Each structure stands twice: as C-alpha cells, then as structure tokens.
UniProtKB/TrEMBL annotation:
Protein name: ABC transporter ATP-binding protein
GO molecular function annotation: ATP binding; ATP hydrolysis activity
Domain of life: Bacteria
Membrane-crossing residue ranges in chain numbering: none
Gene3D superfamilies per record: P-loop containing nucleotide triphosphate hydrolases
Organism: Cryobacterium zhongshanensis
Stretches assigned to the ABC transporter domain: 23-253
Length: 271
C-alpha cells in the first residue's frame, strides 16, 4: 500500500491575522432518553491552538468530543474538521483527526510494536514509514523497554502513552484527547506535554479535556468551560479567567463551592 501523503505545514500567519478554523462545531445536541447531555454547543478552534475543555463530571465533555471525532452520532448540529463535514464524509474527516478517547479500549493482545504497526497501516502508511515513525514515537514516549510486551501487561500510564502514539502516527492536523494525562506519572506528563507543544508549534492543533485546571492554565492558549451541556465561557485563557485563576472562574460558573453541613458525626470517631 502506498504511503499516505503527509499533511503540508500551514503557511505562517501574519501578526494580527486570524489563523484558519480547523474545527467548527455548530448547534451540537445529544440526548440519552430524557437526559439532555449536550445542549446546542458552539465551538470554533483555529489552527495552531492548544485548546482546553473543562467542566464538572457529567457536563457533556466526553459526549461532545465523541461526536466531534465521529464516535457518537449527534441528534442535531454540524461538525467540520479542516472544512470536512465529520458526518457527511466521515472517512475523509477521520484522515485528518487523531483521537485518544475516554474509556480507552485497545487491541491489547498485541505487543506495543504490533499495535503501532496496525495503527499506521490502518491509516494508509506503508510498512517502512510505519517502522520509522514507530521508532521515533517509542523514543519520544519512553516506551523502548515495553515495545515487545503485550499491551495487556502495560500499566495504565503506559497504555495511555502507546494509545497517544497510535493517535499521532499518521501526522493528523487535529488531535482530540480526552483526559490524556489521567494515570500518567509527572515525568511522563512533562514529556508528553513537550511533544504536544512541538506539534502545535509546527501547525498542528490540540483539543483536550482535563480536570486539571493547573495543567490547562499552563499549557493551553484557549479554553471552553462546559456545564450542563452548554458552553458558559470560551476564549483565550486570560479572557475566560477574567483576572481570577482558572479554577476560581470554573468553580464560579459551575455553581460555586458547596458547604458541607449535617455531618457532625464525622468529627467524632467510632473508637
């Protein structure tokens, strides 16, 4: 099989000129029975952005990202990635997207090397290209010692890293990552962050969800806060923070801090 054509790096954007939109989400809705999980979400992500999505548990983050990447069909609304409608032309759209989904499921009876090879040829890369890119990714993610072991025997953090390597092997224009740093140790998290920052600096775009406000504030340039299936604030990190920390702004929009009352029994011990 012939190698897939690499995506050309976008031309530099002149100062003051907005980069092209790589992800456009309009009027996105999704219900599960009587539960409205996503209620008319609109998002616009531009090329070269490191875009964070935050929200409380059950806010609709994973549902939104699943629809964006073609894993879950929306009830209403439209999604375009690099000008391609995700649901009208899913094959073309998925060529330009790399995905690290929530509740990760991999072919874990393969070794790490086999899984990377499978991910590469599935994306249309020839064997030589897959082997070269796999070697680069393995070194970058620190997986040299695990390459010939079954993925089923990997730790949770190593599983995340091999899955992220699989998402990047075809050099997508857009990476959509759902909690990419969950279960990843601090040293590996720093390495992964540096890899993603270099990817963004070269013209790639990252959209990630995380519960770590500190992480989002440190690495992202744009952020959206989603609560109850709606975007309550979106823009640059500084615009959304509004002079507060991102955590303070998030807590404010999510309904404020809850005061624990009526649990005096917890202050007297059973022994």
């Amino acid at each position: 099989m012939a190698a897939a054509s690499p995506a050309q790096a976008p031309a530099p954007v002149a100062p003051g000129v907005l980069a092209p939109v790589v992800l456009s989400v309009t009027g996105l809705r999704k219900s599960f029975g009587s539960t409205l999980a996503v209620s008319g979400i609109n998002l616009e992500v531009r090329t070269g952005s490191f875009y964070g999505i935050v929200g409380p548990n059950g806010a609709g983050k994973t549902t939104t990202l699943s629809m964006v990447t073609g894993l879950l069909r929306p009830d209403d609304g439209s999604i375009e990635v690099h000008g391609i409608d995700v649901w009208s032309d899913p094959v073309a759209a998925k060529r330009v997207i790399g995905v690290l989904p929530d509740r990760l499921r991999l072919f874990d009876r393969l070794t790490g090397a086999q899984l990377l090879y499978y991910a590469g040829v599935l994306r249309g890369l020839d064997g030589a290209t897959v082997r070269k890119r796999s070697a680069d990714l393995v070194v970058a993610f620190g997986l040299e010692d695990a390459l010939n072991r079954l993925v089923a025997d990997y730790s949770a953090g190593m599983t995340k890293k091999i899955a992220l390597a699989c998402a990047m092997i075809h050099s997508p224009r857009l990476l959509v990552l759902d909690e990419p740093f969950e279960s990843v140790d601090p040293v590996s998290a720093v390495n992964v962050t540096e890899i993603l920052q270099k990817y963004v600096a070269s013209g790639g775009t990252v959209v990630l969800s995380s519960h770590s406000m500190d992480l989002i504030q440190r690495v992202c340039d744009h952020v959206a806060i989603i609560v109850n299936g709606k975007v309550l604030a979106a823009g640059t990190v500084d615009e959304v923070r509004g002079g507060q920390t991102l955590e303070e702004r998030f807590v404010e929009l999510a309904g404020g801090r809850k005061v624990a009352e009526g649990m005096e029994w917890l202050h007297s011990f059973s022994d």
